[in-house]
């Protein structure tokens, strides 16, 4: 495919004279333009939904608070500042329309990203090794979770971002970017479900949440732990693959452009959620998640009108419920989707059924 690569037009794009943004379009993915130093390197697509990783402060090198209004950094600039990535991979960028901070986003974004990623990574014969996603950290876990449940192949999809703007005295985004690419090209990263590469650690998208509003060590799967870590910029995996999150479902959203609305109700003293059974009577599925930082609520011995999400946080359960309703699942099927892993674990094996029934 690359026999005529050197003869194709090359356009320098501010990445240094050794880099060319050549029109070496793959026949299957004509919209991708590869930034490449070496056409034998694996290909990685950057799904760019921006965020702090591409933010700059116009105040000071210590500003990690008020940088939102600084002049934005381009993907070319971060590649220029992390030029080592081009020794690892050829890169192509697909940028998605995002306005305002990541808190203003909705599920149209993950539907769009996953449709591109499925086309690029999961079509038969695709020569693309993996994908990475830049995303604002406030809602990274939602968009990443949506992609994780809808990407239909075993190739690595690695979400990353930053807690510090690119202008900080030691920006975390540049290192996170390198580590995400190193993960995306790693054969050992396949067959694990979507991953987050952030602050020297690899976690499973399925179980990860942002645990700190300010510091770089923020994405954690507090209960399930790290999938791996980085040494010398390279990923080290603690467990062999395949190793998927238990009971992670898959939904096809090839033709979906919008998802049904699902809201989150927050329970607290003086505001019990006793009304939930009424929602079930009206045919409205309601999923209960623990308010604790991690862990799970557990269903009772008999099936009730409120469904319990197996080890999912509220933002994740919300997206899974949207996908389940969109897929046309009945109330009973939705209950099974969320609860049956817990029911099987708690109530099915002997002698447990003797203890409870
Ligand atoms: C920072 O940038 C914003 C818009 O990008 C501008 O309104 C503001 O005046 C700038 N501040 C400084 C100190 O340059
Ligand atoms: C590095 O990033 C800064 C913005 O933070 C940008 O001004 C500069 O051009 C980048 N360097 C390269 C080589 O692209
Ligand atoms: C999906 O992403 C593409 C590529 O950035 C963009 O052109 C398109 O407008 C997006 N669609 C929606 C519905 O956001
Ligand atoms: C989601 O966000 C996109 C981009 O801002 C917007 O065009 C679309 O109308 C939004 N969809 C919903 C359901 O709010
Ligand atoms: C791909 O999609 C099919 C049909 O929806 C599903 O059964 C299968 O589990 C999916 N594979 C992956 C790796 O998600
Ligand atoms: C999506 O739409 C195409 C074209 O109408 C159709 O061939 C395909 O079966 C649809 N896929 C799903 C999963 O609905």
TrEMBL record:
InterPro entries in the record, alphabetically?
Asp/glu_Ase-like_sf (IPR036152), Asparaginase/glutaminase-like (IPR006034), L-asparaginase_C (IPR027473), L-asparaginase_N (IPR027474), L-asparaginase_N_sf (IPR037152)
List the EC numbers from the record. 3.5.1.1
Instruction: Please list the residue ranges annotated as the L-asparaginase N-terminal domain.
Output: 43-240
Task: Indicate the enzyme's highest-level EC class.
Answer: hydrolase
Any idea which UniProt keywords this protein has? Signal
Q: What does the entry give for GO biological process?
A: aspartate family amino acid metabolic process
**Cross-referenced SUPFAM superfamilies, in alphabetical order?**
Glutaminase/Asparaginase (SSF53774)
Annotated coiled-coil segments of the chain: none
Q: Name it.
A: asparaginase
């Amino acid at each position: 495919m690359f026999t005529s690569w050197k003869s194709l037009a090359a356009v320098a794009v501010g990445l240094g004279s050794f880099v060319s943004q050549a029109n070496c379009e793959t026949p299957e993915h004509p919209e991708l333009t590869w930034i490449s130093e070496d056409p034998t390197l694996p290909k990685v697509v950057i799904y760019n939904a921006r965020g702090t990783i591409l933010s700059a402060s116009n105040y000071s090198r210590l500003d990690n608070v008020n940088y939102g209004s600084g002049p934005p950094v381009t993907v070319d600039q971060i590649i220029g500042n992390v030029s080592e990535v081009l020794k690892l991979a050829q890169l192509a960028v697909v940028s998605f329309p995002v306005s305002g901070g990541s808190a203003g986003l909705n599920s149209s974004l993950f539907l769009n990203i996953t449709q591109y990623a499925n086309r690029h990574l999961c079509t038969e014969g695709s020569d693309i090794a993996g994908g990475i996603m830049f995303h604002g950290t406030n809602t990274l876990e939602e968009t990443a979770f949506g992609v994780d449940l809808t990407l239909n192949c075993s190739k690595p999809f690695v979400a990353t971002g930053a807690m510090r703007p690119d202008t900080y005295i030691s920006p975390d985004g540049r290192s996170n970017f390198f580590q995400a690419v190193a993960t995306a090209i790693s054969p050992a990263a396949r067959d694990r479900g979507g991953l987050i590469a952030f602050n020297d650690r690899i976690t499973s998208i399925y179980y990860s949440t942002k645990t700190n509003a300010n510091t770089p060590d923020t994405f954690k799967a507090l209960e399930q732990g790290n999938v791996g870590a980085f040494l010398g910029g390279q990923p080290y995996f603690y467990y062999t693959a395949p190793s998927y999150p238990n009971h992670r479902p898959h939904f096809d959203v090839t033709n979906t452009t919008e998802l049904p609305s699902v809201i989150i109700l927050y329970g607290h003293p003086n505001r019990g959620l006793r009304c939930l059974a009424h929602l079930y009577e009206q045919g409205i599925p309601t999923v209960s998640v623990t308010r604790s930082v991690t862990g799970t609520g557990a269903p009772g011995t008999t099936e009730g009108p409120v469904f319990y999400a197996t080890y999912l946080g509220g933002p994740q359960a919300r997206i899974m419920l949207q996908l389940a309703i969109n897929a046309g699942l009945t109330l009973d099927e939705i209950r099974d989707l969320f609860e049956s892993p817990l029911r099987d674990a708690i109530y099915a094996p002997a002698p447990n059924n003797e203890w409870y029934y």
